[in-house]
Amino acid sequence: MAKDKVVVSTFALIPSLRSIVLRGGSLVGVIALSIAFASLSPHFMTLSNWLNILRQVAVVMILASAQTMVIITGGIDLSVGSLLALGGCLAAVAMSYWGWGFVLGSLLGIAVASLAGLGSGVVVAKGKIPDFIATLGMLGALRGVSLLVTGGLPVPSHFTATQLAGYLPQVLVWLGSGDIWLIPVPAIIGVVVVIITWFILSRTVFGRSLYAVGGNREAARASGIDVDRIKILVYGLSGLYCGIGGLVLVGRMNSANALMAEGIELQTIAAVVIGGTNLFGGRGSVFGTLVGAILMGVLSNGLNLLNVQPFWQRVVNGVLIIAVVVFDQWRRRLGE
Amino acid sequence: MVNEKKPLLVLKDICKEFPGVRALDKVSLEVFSGEVHAVLGENGAGKSTLMKILSGITRKDSGEIFLGDRKVDFRSPKDAIAAGVALVQQELSLVPYLSVAENLFLGRWHKQGLMIDWKALKAEAEQLLQRFGLTIAPQTTVEKLSVAEQQMVEILKAMAKPHVQVFLLDEPTSALSDKEIERLFVLLREIKKESKAIIFISHKINEALTISDRITVLRDGVKVITALRENLTEHDIIFHMTGRTLEAKQTTPAALSEKGREVVLSLRDVTVENFVRDIHLDIHRGEILIIFGLVGSGRTTLAEGIFGLKKLTGKIFLQGGEVHISSPLEAVERGIGYIPEDRRQGLVYEMPVFANITLAVLEKVSRRGILDLEEEHRIAKKFVNDLRIRTPHVFRQVLFLSGGNQQKVLLARWLARNPKVLIMDEPTRGIDVGAKFEVRELARTLASLGLVIVYITSEAPEALELGDRIVVMRGGRIVATFENLRAITKSELIAAASGVLAKEVVLNG
User: Fold this and answer.
1) Interface check B366 vs A, CB under 8 A
2) Spatial contact of A285 and A276, defined as CB atoms under 8 Å apart
């Protein structure tokens, strides 16, 4: 409480701080939260804790990168969690029960998730169905497929594993929980994905087309951009990212199950929105999303360290999203 | 005579600053009841900001506003309406699925207990409509009305609140045809009679000269002059608006023979959406073909058909070969460019200038899908210079540019593709005087370089000044073709477009 007051009064004293807050947005939020948590818990500002945060947000980071691209086109992909589960489960089943090995199993998982994503895209673009509805349907249907693939059991399960001598390959486990020097492998994958996404968005014809389609669909069409193709591809790409995310998550848990990462779509959307991407399309950046994902990671990590009940954490997370959007609108109005 | 009265609305030293721009600099203004006060200025002169402050949408930085004897400070549009200042917006605020009567008294419906008293509502709406000479049935749903009718309902909606004394009209004629504008003016004169004040924002000088009692000109946020209408000429106003004198270009309609007779674009038996029919046209290299017609004549539908935005049947020949165009992508690939009537359909506002310019040539500024940003910037800078697009740099978002400069960005997009045919649909609508001259000049230059320009307009003077040939459309058909433009007059052209004999046409202004 007292801390809050100090912060507020400093705001009033140094006007330039106001402009920092206005420009920096969520990054300032991350720093402010970190300072707060660091002063409340001695365990927060340690290297191992930060590596832990990175490890935890890696999967959200990967999926949120995909979500950023989809949202920039003015769409939304509610099926990212289900795509992740489908890709992860198929890969795990192929590796541990069918003896496909790491490479083939991974390719299968990623390929199927990509195809499913392309399917959403076709439904959206050719079926003229709102993105929200099409991917909501996929969210349900693909969970069902994952349950069918795994029979509702974890993969590998204790029972089947002993029978079939099936275990997940060590490489996969390393992807999810290994380190290179001190840095967690999933965090490295997450950052690489973010950088690739940045490159796609800012340096490729495809990325430019995403902004054009989201910014003004009619103008994009009238400039000779094949809007349907762009839509289908972006959902396919989302599937691909989710497939990769699925591998990382399965590796981290050393197990796959059809219900993993439930509700993660909301976290990805939150990360995108906190990162300043316009929910209606046309504007946004994946680095913003990266910061958004880290902000949420820092928040939940800090609250854990402070022994705040998980129930309260949900409340705080929800309030955070609303607060950020309110802040963002306020910022934009001042910027006008 | 108006000056002897006490002003109804007084603005004193209004200032408003946006980051980097001084939108209004100590603007003072007096408006009397019973007058139409036109506020003129180029885009970016501060007209809209002034309107927004007066209607409570934006707050002023400093200065004072007096309404009657009271000093007022509007914090929201609600405050302004409560005080008696109503804004009639360009974007209408009617509920499309409700009836005219319901819209007129929106939120203030006569009630009997919990129920709406439909009879009283209808009666009162009818009375209001009649008072201003409108023949719209009060039970019609608003979506079925034409844009012009909707706009009049919008104005009457403000009139239905008896305490409203000041009407702010922001570019009310931008979507209207000449005939509809006249009807609007009749309505405004009626309102004037009831001792209300009307502030009329426009950049159409002739309209201001027709309807207003006094005229105020803004330039770069500063009030240049307020004067009685009769003391100003069109040339004075242009001078005040732009700060320079524009010499009217004396054009000599180039004879077609000079440009050769190579036919670039031919339309045979073209039908678009069962509305535009029987279109036969041959358009030559280097020609500016004007399609003249009123709103709803089918001219835009025809353009959209050629560009693949609407379903077209019949034959299109491009440089002798038949082509099938079923999407804009195919049109673009064949070398046809289209600047839509509404800039909002063409520009991606959130994108910077350079990205809007290169949007139709992305494959040319990239290799294997990866953009060459330097090449993009080079092309963009070239067009910004060539077309004199006023922007601080090519990274500026298009949304911050004035209407005329936005239009030039669209033009640049197509020029970057080096098209064979460029269709321009009302390219000078809603842009300021200086930019109008420039856009027309560009059309001429492009034609002289060998492009086919299909230029759609509903302004007769523009058609006569710019065109090599004029086809007139009405009801989805070509009803007249004029080859020798020296031999026809503005009124003949309008007569052909509106389907009456020339002598019956009453021209205003």
Assistant:
1) yes
2) yes
CA distance linking residue B57 with residue B392, whole number of Å: 27
> How many angstroms separate the CA atoms of B469 and B482, rounded?
6
Give domain status of residue A20, yes or no: no
Q: What is the distance between the alpha carbons of residues B360 and B355, in angstroms, rounded to a whole number?
A: 9
In the block, residue with structure tokens 């409203």: B164
Q: Could you tell me if residue B72 is left (phi over 0), alpha (psi between -120 and 50 degrees) or otherwise beta? A: beta
- Quick check: B329 and A226 CB within 8 A? yes
Instruction: Please say whether the beta carbons of A22 and A334 come within 8 A.
Output: yes
Q: Which of B23, B24, B51 is nearest to B37 (CA)?
A: B51
Domain range for A72: 45-331
Please tell me which residue of chain A has the smallest CA distance to B21. Answer: A336
Complex-level ipTM: 0.84
Tokens representing A215 are 């910014």
What is chain B's Cα-based Rg? 24
Geometric angle at alpha carbon A196, from A191 and A199, rounded to 5°: 130
Is the CB of A204 inside 8 Å of chain B's CB atoms?
A: yes
| Phi, psi of B14, deg, nearest 5 | -75, 130
A208 touches chain B (CB under 8 A): yes
Model pLDDT, residue A5: 40
Q: How many domains does chain A have?
A: 1
Closest CA to B408 of B429, B390, B382, B426: B390
CATH classification at residue A220: 1.10.3470
Query: Is residue A271 situated within a structural domain?
Result: yes
Largest CA distance in chain A: 69
A225 interaction partners in chain B (CB closer than 8 Å): 329, 359, 362
Domain assignment present for residue A82? The answer is yes
Q: How confident is the model at residue B2 (pLDDT cuts 50, 70, 90)?
A: very low
From the list B249, B308, B316, B240, the residue with the least C-alpha distance to B464 is B249
Angle at which helices A2-13 and A26-40 pack, to 10 degrees? 140
Q: CB distance from A2 to chain B under 8 Å?
A: no
Nearest residue of chain A to residue B373 (CA atoms): A203
Does B355 contact chain A (CB < 8 Å)? yes
Tell me the pLDDT tens digit for each residue of B63-103.
Answer: 999 998 889 888 888 888 888 898 887 656 788 888 998 88
In this structure, are strands B197-202 and B166-170 parallel, antiparallel, or unpaired?
A: parallel
Report yes or no: A333 at the B interface, CB cutoff 8 Å.
Answer: no
> CA dihedral defined by B369, B374, B379, B382, rounded to 10 degrees?
180
* Angle CA B122–B125–B126, to nearest 5: 85
Facing A212 at nearest CB: one of B309, B359, B373: B359
Q: Which of A200, A210, A223, A334 to substitute to test the interface with B, most B CBs within 10 Å? A: A223
Cα separation of the two ends of chain A? 33
**Beta-carbon count within 10 A of B89 CB:** 18
B444 within 8 A of B389, measured Cβ to Cβ:
no
B415 Cα distance to chain centroid:
23
Q: Select from A187, A84, A82, A93 the least CA-distant residue to A143.
A: A82
Determine the pLDDT at residue A211.
Answer: 96
Q: Does B18 touch chain A (CB under 8 A)?
A: yes
Q: Give the torsion through C-alpha atoms of B383, B387, B389, B395, to 10 deg.
A: 0
Q: pLDDT digit string (tens) for A10-58?
A: 444 444 666 666 666 788 888 989 999 999 999 999 999 999 999 999 9
Burial (0-12, 13-18, 19+ Cβ within 10 Å), B141: middle
**Pair B305, B311: CB distance under 8 Å:** yes
Q: Look up tokens 């990866």; give the residue.
A: B370
Do the domain assignments include residue A257? yes
